[in-house]
Write a structure and sequence with these properties.
The protein is mainly alpha-helical. The chain is 55% helix and 3% strand. It has helices spanning 19-29, 45-53, 64-73, 86-89, 95-98, 101-114, 117-137, 141-150, 159-168, 175-178, 185-196, 202-210, 220-231, 238-245; strands at 7-10, 33-36. α1 links the parallel β1 (7-10) and β2 (33-36). α7 (117-137) packs antiparallel against α8 (141-150). The two termini are 32 Å apart.
Length: 250
């Protein structure tokens, strides 16, 4: 791999990447890392909501179109006593959606028109499996069920369609990703769902984005959806059964 690509190492808040650290990476991985200094910025969704509620700017912390959308909708603004903020009404982005059965039912009906019967059954199975896993591992069950339902939102698109979708959403894709359109549906779905349904939480959208390719720092919800996709009731085989037997044991 080291001969095929250059590897960038970015700094993270609270972490130190110095010459010895780069030497360890070089020795362990056999690559020549390129250090990319990144200024420490706290961009957790909770911190962003707090800044908006306090009237502080969020420019440069989120894309301009996101900041504009938040401002237009009055999201997360502080309200007077007895008056709920929009962000609070939505649970800071997700509470209402994940516990709202009419919202779930509406998205289920919409999904049925977007994908074929087999994919629709799979999505319902993943939703059920995600809810069960969430119960076992202490993750929000409503959010897990909704993530499972929506994870293949863009799976009905063919290869040219998914690439067109990525372009329409303004996604910047590497040549490698553009050459593998079959793995893009989670990325495009997360971006499109976040745009069309702002009440969906960042955590749910992240799980959808990562359900195919994964990530080194997957959250509990990320992992619940990733595993639910692999062992939903429609999946068969010895490996699936072995995985199911491990639920609650690890």
């Amino acid at each position: 791999m080291g001969g095929l690509a250059s590897f960038a190492v970015a700094t993270r808040p609270g972490a130190t990447v110095d010459a010895p650290a780069l030497a360890r990476i070089r020795a362990a991985c056999g690559i020549e890392p390129v250090l990319v200094p990144v200024p420490p910025l706290d961009i957790a969704s909770r911190a962003l909501r707090a800044r908006v509620a306090a009237g502080e700017p969020i420019r440069y912390l989120v894309p301009d179109e996101v900041a504009s959308f938040i401002e237009r909708r009055g999201l997360y603004e502080a309200r007077g006593e007895g008056e709920k903020a929009v962000g609070a009404k939505q649970g800071g982005g997700g509470d209402a959606a994940r516990n709202d059965e009419p919202f779930f039912a509406a998205r289920r009906d919409e999904l049925q028109g977007r994908v074929g019967p087999r994919r629709f059954r799979h999505s319902l199975g993943v939703s059920d499996a995600a809810g069960e896993l969430a119960h076992v591992y202490g993750v929000d069950e409503g959010e897990a069920r909704l993530a499972g339902l929506l994870h293949d939102w863009d799976k009905g698109l063919d290869d040219p369609g998914i690439l067109a979708r990525a372009d329409e959403l303004g996604l910047e894709l590497s040549d490698e990703l553009r050459s593998m359109p079959r793995v893009l549906h989670g990325i495009t779905a997360a971006r499109a769902l976040g745009r069309d349904f702002p009440e969906l939480s960042p955590a749910l959208l992240q799980a959808i984005e990562r359900h195919t390719l994964g990530a080194p720092d997957m959250s509990d919800l990320d992992m619940v959806l990733y595993i639910a996709d692999a062992l939903e009731p429609g999946r068969e085989g010895k490996r699936v059964e072995k995985l199911r037997r491990q639920i609650g044991k690890m």
